[in-house]
């Protein structure tokens, strides 16, 4: 990843090797304030209402064009317009819009699975460029795509793009092609504002199909789409995607004339994960963001018609599609709020790029995607909470900018997802297909010049913003709390398993130091890892200790082997990778010998597990995790020569990260809750089947405490014309219900009729039957929003289109899964402190705030403290009474409906998930070390056929290369590795 910066601890200087600059402590402090002023006061990040109106008109025009495309050719229809630059993430200067047009007929999951349709197979060819693939269509309806199929049977991206551009031109040239929004077939097209969604929403939204509801304009039957004849639309040539330059003619409604660049990207969606991607397989269990990285890897990917760089060797270039991860990328960005340091670092880098482009004839090679990639690598590399406080803003900006200088000069930097995909040549935001070496050097020189100018920034005082100082103080306090919660010094030797074995044969003393919270956290890690592995397209290498499918009476032992072998592999490559990197070439032979000895010892440990006859409760994940840890500590104590040096540092890191992150698990689990989306889906089914009136159902759900119902009521009260609820149960069927504020009678009680819930009698002031169940803990949410300055995005919107788009019920419900936190971690420090009842710490950090803000927050802290001190008996009583309100259930309407919900499968437990994956695949390894080594060609997607079985040792690097070569010899007649999705 290029040369890294060095920091001199004595003088607190930062050295940038790429730009050959040194910044002292005073300069870094000055740059912190300078960069903060750029973010807080610069005009780069502000948009006036006229500008927002112009962008809304352009977006409505794009919806009109895409609806026209689907009307002209239903094969290219798209039910949703996927925004690649969401409203919450567009903190960058300039006027530009980017959208992904999903080809619904070819993508998975299908809009309406019961109707069937063609399916796509992703083929990652051997010897082709990594990050690219080919697509083969099969199944019913595939003959309709015959004109786009090449001679070798693959879907040609160039013909698909040409047809799409032709349809766009036809849609723009026929003003009467699409009527009013109310006349659009919303079951297949994207005419309503609620159909403009983020890439992170697509997969969960389609899982709810056909129980979906979207917002339409209350005046959709009156207003029309923008007329394409009122715009100057030009297609920019020489781009890998469809790029439009839209010039808007002056109108009194907008009051501004501007040109907006719109990028339209065709995409075929897949729910799986590419086999050649080294993300997230390169992430160890000991990484603090392991859960985040594996969660975003379950969001699928797209293939888009972007060609490989001209300098890359590629067979059948017209049929080669690029693999992109818009949902995963947006999920990584949505983990942090606009006030967090990672978001502020990206904002400064974007402002720097904008300044280079405006003041100099350069900055054309540098793309926004390059900046995000370097930021993601920086977040993965630097994981400490203290390393991401607001006083480190300048350090991260300078380090990332310096790495960008090095990448520009070498014209090389790996993608965040593929190890051999060069983003300097294939960056999605690059624009032009090919740049010269002079272009790269010119941008590197300009960036170095701006970095050199930063050395002249005048020193100034500390950060004047009290909220950022509160955030820093809270992080310091939280680190102190974690230190106090660490096991005492006297037991740390025991925890790290330095004592002899106990009489039971296990190092139970060490394993018992893990709390139940830590076991729960580690169980989440293992489950996420198994989920990602189940989505990976092709096989990884089989390890020598695997001896085929185990007999049924030994299945539990094989499940443990499956999990423990993963940890043994990770520990091995974590240890020996560092050994080779720091000890140089001279000790490679010694490291190889030690590696082989470790393999033999690990194999013996797995044999001991197979021979053990002890039975455990496999239905309890914590029991399974504790047993896994016991076996690991047992192996550490049994073989102190080979296993202990490798496992001890790995297990120590695992203990530390589980100790720090286990307090975030309640907050993490709360965001994964699906009750809201399930209740909204049931509401949709009731309305579609005519079992309930839409207005009555909304009021009923509001009294039951569902947030989506409260959001609908709020939106209807803000818009004079109300909203239109659009239901799309099956193709060709669209149901519209107009909801206005005057028709929603909140005093009407429909509980006994539709939901059948017992009336809750308040046992405390403020908790009545009409109160939302989640209002039993509103103070905690309010306190978090105040302390972390979480702004409500609806308050920043000024147009009805943006309000409908952002507050659409499905969109808002799915969006709640994202954290939008102000600090590093998978959860909120405020929630964790409240869980630990550390209210005094919250009161201490509030002393930094101004008097006006301090009084309100202290009052919130007092209310939360009283709530936490309520008698446990009363808390249990109210909790028991409130629990049924979390289920949207009816006694009359729902009693006659078939319950089509899936029963909980055996795979719901950790061991059940492990067994399903083990039975589906013929290898026990989940961690794939092959992704760390360069393929002999630009990209190899290995499919190991009949791997050699060796019992003595694990596969090492030479054996891995032998397997790859032998595989290619066996596959001379098969140039591609095909995986059926």
TrEMBL record:
Signal peptide: none annotated. Residues 345-424 form the Mab-21-like HhH/H2TH-like domain. Gene3D superfamilies: 1.10.1410.40. SMART domains: Mab-21 (SM01265). InterPro entries: Mab-21_HhH/H2TH-like, MAB21L/cGLR. Pfam families: Mab-21_C (PF20266). This is Mab-21-like HhH/H2TH-like domain-containing protein.
């Amino acid at each position: 990843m290029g040369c890294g910066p060095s920091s001199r601890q004595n003088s607190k200087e930062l050295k940038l090797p790429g730009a050959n600059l040194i910044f002292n402590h005073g300069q870094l402090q000055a740059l912190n304030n300078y960069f903060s002023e750029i973010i807080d006061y610069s005009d780069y990040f502000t948009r006036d209402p006229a500008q927002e109106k112009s962008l809304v008109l352009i977006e409505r025009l794009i919806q009109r064009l895409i609806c026209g495309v689907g009307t002209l050719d239903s094969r290219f229809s798209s039910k949703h317009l996927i925004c690649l630059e969401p409203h919450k993430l567009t903190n960058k200067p300039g006027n530009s819009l980017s959208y992904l047009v999903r080809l619904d007929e070819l993508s998975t999951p299908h809009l309406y699975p019961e109707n069937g349709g063609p399916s796509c197979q992703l083929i990652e060819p051997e010897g082709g460029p990594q990050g690219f693939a080919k697509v083969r269509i099969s199944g019913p309806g595939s003959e309709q795509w015959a004109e786009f199929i090449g001679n070798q049977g693959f879907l040609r991206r160039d013909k698909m793009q040409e047809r799409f551009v032709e349809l766009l031109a036809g849609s723009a040239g026929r003003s009467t092609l699409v009527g009013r929004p109310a006349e659009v077939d919303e079951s297949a097209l994207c005419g309503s504002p609620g159909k403009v969604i983020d890439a992170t929403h697509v997969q969960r939204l389609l899982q709810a199909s056909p129980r979906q509801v979207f917002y339409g304009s209350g005046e959709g039957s009156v207003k029309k789409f923008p007329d394409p004849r009122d715009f100057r639309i030009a297609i920019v040539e020489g781009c890998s995607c469809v790029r439009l330059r839209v010039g808007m003619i002056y109108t009194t409604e907008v009051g501004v004339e501007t040109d907006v660049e719109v990028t339209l990207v065709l995409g075929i969606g897949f729910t799986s994960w590419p086999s050649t991607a080294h993300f997230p397989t390169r992430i160890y269990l000991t990484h603090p963001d392991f859960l985040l990285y594996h969660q975003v890897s379950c969001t699928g990917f797209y293939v888009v018609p972007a060609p490989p760089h001209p300098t890359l060797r590629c067979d059948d270039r017209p049929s080669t599609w690029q693999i992109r991860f818009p949902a995963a990328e947006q999920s990584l960005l949505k983990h942090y709020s606009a006030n967090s340091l990672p978001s502020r670092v990206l904002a400064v880098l974007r402002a720097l790029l904008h300044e280079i482009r405006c003041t100099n004839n350069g900055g054309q090679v540098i793309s926004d995607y390059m900046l995000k990639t370097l930021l993601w690598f920086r977040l993965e590399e630097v994981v400490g909470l203290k390393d991401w406080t607001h006083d480190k803003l300048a350090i991260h900006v300078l380090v990332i900018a310096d790495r960008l200088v090095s990448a520009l000069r070498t014209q090389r930097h790996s993608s965040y997802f593929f190890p051999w995909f060069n983003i300097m040549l294939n960056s999605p935001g690059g624009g032009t297909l090919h740049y010269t070496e002079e272009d790269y050097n010119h941008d590197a020189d300009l960036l170095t010049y701006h970095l050199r100018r930063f050395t002249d920034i005048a020193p100034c005082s500390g950060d004047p913003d009290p909220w950022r100082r509160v955030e820093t103080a809270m992080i310091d306090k939280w680190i102190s709390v974690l230190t106090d919660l660490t096991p005492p010094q006297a037991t740390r030797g025991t925890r790290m398993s330095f004592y002899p074995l106990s009489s039971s044969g296990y190092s139970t003393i060490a394993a018992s130091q893990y709390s139940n919270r830590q076991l729960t956290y580690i169980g989440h890690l293992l489950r996420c890892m198994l989920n990602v592995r189940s989505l990976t397209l092709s096989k990884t290498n089989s390890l020598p200790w695997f001896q085929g499918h185990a007999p049924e009476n030994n299945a539990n032992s094989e499940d443990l082997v499956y999990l423990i072998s993963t940890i043994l592999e990770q520990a091995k490559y974590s240890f020996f990778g560092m050994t080779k990197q720091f000890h140089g070439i001279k000790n490679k032979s010694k490291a190889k010998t030690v590696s082989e000895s470790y393999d033999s010892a690990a194999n013996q440990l797995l044999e001991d597990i197979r021979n053990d006859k002890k039975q455990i409760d496999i239905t309890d994940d914590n029991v399974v995790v504790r047993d896994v840890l016991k076996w690991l500590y047992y192996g550490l104590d049994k073989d102190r020569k080979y296993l202990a040096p490798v496992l001890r540092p790995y297990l120590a890191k695992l203990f530390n990260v589980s100790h720090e992150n286990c307090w975030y698990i309640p907050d993490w689990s709360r965001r994964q809750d699906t009750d809201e989306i399930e209740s909204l889906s049931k509401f949709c089914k009731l309305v579609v089947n005519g079992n309930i009136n839409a207005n009555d159902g909304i009021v009923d759900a509001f009294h039951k405490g569902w947030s989506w119902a409260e959001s609908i009521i709020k939106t209807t009260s803000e818009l004079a014309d109300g909203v239109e609820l659009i239901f799309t149960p099956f193709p060709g069927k669209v149901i519209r219900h107009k909801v206005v504020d005057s028709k929603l009678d909140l005093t009407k009680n429909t509980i006994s009729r539709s939901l059948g819930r017992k009336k809750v009698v308040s046992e405390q002031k403020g908790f009545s039957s009409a109160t939302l169940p989640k209002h039993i803990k509103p103070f905690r949410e309010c306190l978090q929003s105040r302390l972390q300055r979480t702004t409500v995005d609806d308050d920043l919107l000024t147009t009805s289109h943006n309000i409908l788009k952002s507050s659409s019920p499905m969109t808002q419900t799915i969006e709640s899964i994202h954290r939008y936190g102000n600090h590093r971690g998978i959860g909120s420090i405020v929630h964790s402190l409240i869980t630990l009842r550390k209210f005094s710490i919250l009161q201490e950090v509030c002393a930094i705030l101004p008097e006006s803000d301090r009084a309100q927050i202290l009052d919130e802290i007092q209310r939360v403290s009283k709530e936490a001190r309520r008698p446990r008996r009363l808390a249990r009583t109210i909790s028991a009474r409130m629990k049924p309100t979390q289920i949207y259930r009816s006694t009359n309407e729902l009693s006659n409906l078939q319950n089509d919900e899936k029963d909980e499968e055996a795979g719901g437990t950790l061991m059940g998930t492990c067994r399903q994956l083990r039975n589906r695949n013929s290898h026990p390894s989940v961690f794939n070390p092959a992704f760390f080594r360069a393929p002999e060609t630009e990209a190899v997607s290995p499919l190991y056929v009949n791997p050699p079985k060796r019992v003595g040792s694990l596969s090492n690097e030479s054996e891995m290369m032998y397997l790859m070569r032998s595989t290619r010899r066996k596959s001379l007649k098969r140039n591609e590795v095909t995986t059926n999705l």
